[in-house]
Task: structure prediction
Amino acid sequence: MNKTHKILRLPSTLLLLIFVLLWIPVGCSPAEKNLTLVKAEQAYNKGNYTEVISLVEQVLKKKPDALPALQLKTRAMVALSRIADALDHQSRIEKKYPELAAPLLQEIILTIIKTSLKNENYFVRSAAVKAVGEMGNADLLPLIIPSMRDKEIFVRFFTVESFGQLEGPDFLKLVMASGQDPSSMVRVAAVKVLAQLEKTHSGLEINHLLATFAKDSDPTVRLLALAAMSKNGDEAAFVKIVSEIKKLPQETQVLAVSALGRSKNETAIPLIKAYSTHNDHMIRMYASEAMGVIASDAFHPELLKGLEDTDPAVRGASATSLGKLGNPQAIPLLEKHLQDESPMVRLSAAEGLKRLGQNHPIYYEKALSHPDYGVRHFAVSSLRRTWGKEGLALLRLALKDKAPRVRTAAIRAIGEMGGAESLELVRNSMKDPDLAVRTYAAGNTGRLINKIAGLALKNLKSD
Result:
C-alpha cells in the first residue's frame, strides 16, 4: 500500500488535519471551465441558486469529483439556507473522495460567514465578524475590514476585537484607525486590543500607541489606556489614573475601580480596598473584581468580607476573586456559599472552588436547567473560563438550550478546546435553526480545524 492510499484510509478528522483549510479560494481558470459551469456561476451571481444546482448536477454526472462544481453546489445550498443538506453532501463526498472533504467544508464555513456579513440584522453581522476573528487566520482579515464602516456601533466594536484575534501585518494600523471612530465604545475596543499585546509588537512600543488614547475626550477610553500603560510599567500613567479619579463624578466611579485593577499596580491595593466598603453596591462589586485582577493576598480579608455582602453581585465577584488568589483557606467559606440563595453566587462559588482544585459539577448541571437564561449563560461562561475539556459533557447539554445566546456561548466554549469530539459538535451546530448561532458555529469549526493543524491561536474572551 503506497503512502497516498494510507492517507486516504485515515479518519476524517485526521484528513482535515492533513488537508488543512488554507482559506484560499480553490477553482479553475476560465479556460478550464466548461460552458455549463460558466452558466451556473452566472446564475449564482444573479441569485438563481436553484438553477445553479440544476446546472452543476449536469457537470457532476460526467465528472463527480469536479471540485469547482462541488464547491459551487455547496455555495448554492448554503445560500438557500440548506446547511444541513450541504453538510450531509460534504460527508457523502468525503466517503468517495476524501481529498475533497476539507475544501468543501471550507466552502460551507466561508459561505455562511460571507452571507452573514451582508445580513440586515446587525446581531448576525456582529456574529460574522466575531466568527472570522475566532477562526484566528490572518489571511481572512480583508473579509472584515469593510465592517469598520458599518452603521451599527456593535458591529464596528466586534470588528476591532476581531482585528486583535487575527493580528497580521497591518492590523495595528487598522486598530489605530479605529481610534478615529466617533463612538467611544469602538475606541474602547481598540484600547483593549492594544492592552492584550506585549510591551513591544512588530518593533513598536505599545505604550507609545496607547498614549494617543490616553488623551481621548472620553474618560473610559482615557482610563483604560492609562491602566494598560501602567500595566506595562509606566508609573507616570498610574499617577494620572489617580489624578483622573479625583475628577470623576460619583456615577462614573466604577470606571476608576476598573482602571485601578487593570493597572495591576500594587500601589492601587489600598485604593481598591477603600472602594470595597463604598455605599454603592456596583462599586463594591467592581472592587471585588479588581481584587481578582491584581490577585494579591493582601485582598484576602476584604474578599472574605465581600462573601457576606447583602448584594449577590458583590458576593459572586468576591467568590470568583478568592479563587483567583489561590489561597486554600477560602475553601470552607466558598463551600458554604454553594448553598447561597442566589444561583449566580452558587456558580461563582463553584468557579472559585474549581480554581482551588475542587470540582462541583452538580451546581453547573442544576444551573443549566434554570428557568432564567441569564443563569444558564453564566454557567456556560464559567465552564469556559475554568473547566477546559472536563466541561465538555456539560457543554453538550447547553448546545440543546432553547436560548440562542446560550447555544452560542457553548459553541464558543467548545471552540477553545481541541480534538475530534469538539470538532464534530461545532460542525453539527452549523445546522442550528438560528442564523447567528450557525455563523458562530462556522467560525469555531474553522477555529478547531486550525487548532488541530497546529496554528497558534489566541484564547477567546470570556464575555
Notes: Residues 122-247 form a domain with the Leucine-rich Repeat Variant fold (CATH 1.25.10.10). Confidence is low (pLDDT under 50) at residues 1-11, 13-22, 24-32.
